[in-house]
Amino acid sequence: MYANVIPGISHEQLDKTFQYSVPDEFADQIFPGSVVEVPFGGGNRLITGFVTELTSLPEIDPERIKPVAKVLSDSDLPESRMIAIAAWMKDEYGSTMSRALKTVLPVKQKVQKKEKKIITLSDDAEMVEGYILRMRKKKAVARLRLLENISPWNEYEYDALKDSLKITPKTIKELSEAGIITLKTVYEYRNPVELPEGAPPEQLELNGEQKRITEDIIAGIRAGDKRTSLIYGITGSGKTLCYTELIANVIAAGKQAIMLIPEIALTWQTVRRFQERFGERVSVLNSRMSKGERYDQFLRAAKGEIDVVIGPRSALFTPFEKIGIIIIDEEHESSYISENIPAYHAVETAEFIAGMHGAAVVLGSATPSVKSYHKALKGEYRLFTLGSRATGSQLPDVYTEDMRKELAAGNRGMFSRRLLGAISDRLEKKSRSCFLSTRGVMPDLYPAGPAVMCSNVLTAMFP
Question: What mean pLDDT do residues 13-40 have?
Fold first, then answer.
């Protein structure tokens, strides 16, 4: 048996693996994601690497392949877990290991760090005063100007202070070497979202249905029920409020949450809602962010500086150490299935990741996928139903018009007579109508195209 090992995890090095033989004593200890020590280079210096896959096929002459020196015990590293996920995806969906790794590990890229320098004055008043007296005798104008404009226990940004006081870097360096000031470098995260201004809105209370569902899901998690939960709730029933309550419970237990949404366009609206509840411990990941912004959010997650990440399916690979819950809203959406290799399904992958962490998976939809609903009816999923709108308002009347009957009645237009009458009524009352175009509705029955059929499904007439 041979192990393919990468010496470090970075986006540019995922194709550069080195092969080592697996000694018999390590045969039961090595798997994709294992952290190992291996001899590297002509001097055989020991380096740490990650096993990406195991194989029985040597890439070169077996006599030239070096053995793994040691298996380390820290296989719970974020990189190790990500490699294990990639290995599962490779086998489950059919892919090369390199492609799977590049899907789950878009972490380290050639991105310039965003840093700033901070200046602080020494709190040794006697030393500072003595230094000032010496500088006055020397008429060191620049140093005196700096010292007269800063005070102990305050922090000053290097560039702002240098520019405003017209101080040279050399002057600041001399003061630092004398111990009068301290220079430190602070890493600044690129923040893709800003906290809402003003006081947070009043926290909404759960109604009876929402409270029952969240309590039942939490009780199931605490009792060790590993099944995925499906919240089947009509539009406007308050599923998001259930999500926030579940996440709050997970955070209180010292764990983290991933919230998947189907479209990037919905990200900012959802983030605002969650920021109002959880503040700056919420972040976002999506493909519209810059490389620097994405890199910073991965760093924050790996360091445990955020508790909640919101985004489309790629946010599933956030390197959290203690995932407590993964929530997938609108779980029926086709955008949760990757169009690239590996063509993974976010729901199935979420369930695998949750199994690694002992976390819960919660799906939500007003129109669950047939697969999820079938699993719920069979008892493989826990099914919870929200049957009424949180505001108490009524659902709109919905009807489907058969255009074949319209054609038989002599109507050769794109719109049914009932739809035209309803639109005319709205226009007379200075109101509006909304059309939603949907793909793939019985094109075999409607040769003119699905748009003709779909234009006659009026989802909501504004009363």
Answer: 79
284, pLDDT greater than 70: yes
pLDDT of 50 reads 81
Q: The whole model's pTM is what? A: 0.69
- pLDDT tens sequence across 72-97: 765 567 777 888 888 899 889 988 87
Q: Does 456 or 137 have the greater pLDDT score? A: 137
Token pair, residue 275, equals: 């920021």
Report the C-alpha gap between 177 and 196 in whole angstroms: 42
CA atoms within 13 A on the CB side of 307: 18
Mean pLDDT score of the chain:
80
Q: Which two tokens stand for residue 138?
A: 């020397």
Angle at 324 between CA 323 and CA 330, to 5 degrees: 95
pLDDT in tens, 358-395: 999 999 998 899 999 999 999 999 999 987 776 666 77
Residue 171: how many other CB atoms lie within 10 Å: 18
pLDDT of residue 11: 44
The DSSP bridge partners found for residue 229 are: 362, 382
Contact 219, 360 (CB under 8 A): no
Residue 62 corresponds to which tokens in the numbers above? 């077996």
Distances, alpha carbon 172 to alpha carbons 71, 118, 119, 142, 157, in Å: 48, 11, 9, 9, 12
